[in-house]
């Protein structure tokens, strides 16, 4: 009887050990499989919000950052630049930004949270070209005499004012896109995230 008990005990240990080793092996095999189904760090970074230091952005200057592979312009508009906007309401195709090209909190005359700071995706809404800045008036920028500053898409001639509103009778159908964003302080903002759920 004691021999049978010894045999059963040995078999039991063998079965338990085999099951444990098999379980560890199965878990080891699952880890790379499950990991491959999760988004990579690169993919996470590509869609992640971008924090920007704007402390050195002087009035009249523009800086460009990348968010989700797109150029995003941040423009510190001067008082003179802002004063051009109401003058152009009749010339732009969507003066009140009725089309959804911006978060609700940027649906205003300046298309921004802070009037002086425009944050816009720098891609033409026609075919995805990148417009050039033409901030100076008229002939100084090689534009018409009535030009008050804005952006020119060199590919097909679409023009936008300093709020990213497209002028009438141009190939681009819509205003420039304003991405969701929020201010963390007077000198820092984050693009791709906001607390208003836009």
From TrEMBL:
<dbReference type="GO" id="GO:0051537">
    <property type="term" value="F:2 iron, 2 sulfur cluster binding"/>
</dbReference>
<keyword id="KW-0411">Iron-sulfur</keyword>
<dbReference type="InterPro" id="IPR006311">
    <property type="entry name" value="TAT_signal"/>
</dbReference>
<keyword id="KW-0408">Iron</keyword>
<keyword id="KW-0249">Electron transport</keyword>
<keyword id="KW-0472">Membrane</keyword>
<keyword id="KW-0812">Transmembrane</keyword>
<keyword id="KW-1015">Disulfide bond</keyword>
<comment type="subunit">
    <text>The main subunits of complex b-c1 are: cytochrome b, cytochrome c1 and the Rieske protein.</text>
</comment>
<keyword id="KW-0813">Transport</keyword>
<dbReference type="GO" id="GO:0005886">
    <property type="term" value="C:plasma membrane"/>
</dbReference>
<dbReference type="InterPro" id="IPR017941">
    <property type="entry name" value="Rieske_2Fe-2S"/>
</dbReference>
<dbReference type="InterPro" id="IPR014349">
    <property type="entry name" value="Rieske_Fe-S_prot"/>
</dbReference>
<dbReference type="InterPro" id="IPR005805">
    <property type="entry name" value="Rieske_Fe-S_prot_C"/>
</dbReference>
<dbReference type="GO" id="GO:0008121">
    <property type="term" value="F:quinol-cytochrome-c reductase activity"/>
</dbReference>
<comment type="similarity">
    <text>Belongs to the Rieske iron-sulfur protein family.</text>
</comment>
<keyword id="KW-1278">Translocase</keyword>
<dbReference type="GO" id="GO:0046872">
    <property type="term" value="F:metal ion binding"/>
</dbReference>
<keyword id="KW-1003">Cell membrane</keyword>
<keyword id="KW-1133">Transmembrane helix</keyword>
<feature type="transmembrane region" description="Helical">
    <location>
        <begin position="14"/>
        <end position="34"/>
    </location>
</feature>
<feature type="domain" description="Rieske">
    <location>
        <begin position="87"/>
        <end position="190"/>
    </location>
</feature>
<dbReference type="Pfam" id="PF00355">
    <property type="entry name" value="Rieske"/>
</dbReference>
<protein>
    <recommendedName>
        <fullName>Ubiquinol-cytochrome c reductase iron-sulfur subunit</fullName>
        <ecNumber>7.1.1.8</ecNumber>
    </recommendedName>
</protein>
<dbReference type="InterPro" id="IPR019470">
    <property type="entry name" value="Ubiq_cytC_Rdtase_Fe-S_su_TAT"/>
</dbReference>
<dbReference type="InterPro" id="IPR036922">
    <property type="entry name" value="Rieske_2Fe-2S_sf"/>
</dbReference>
<comment type="function">
    <text>Component of the ubiquinol-cytochrome c reductase complex (complex III or cytochrome b-c1 complex), which is a respiratory chain that generates an electrochemical potential coupled to ATP synthesis.</text>
</comment>
<dbReference type="Pfam" id="PF10399">
    <property type="entry name" value="UCR_Fe-S_N"/>
</dbReference>
<keyword id="KW-0479">Metal-binding</keyword>
<dbReference type="InterPro" id="IPR006317">
    <property type="entry name" value="Ubiquinol_cyt_c_Rdtase_Fe-S-su"/>
</dbReference>
<keyword id="KW-0001">2Fe-2S</keyword>
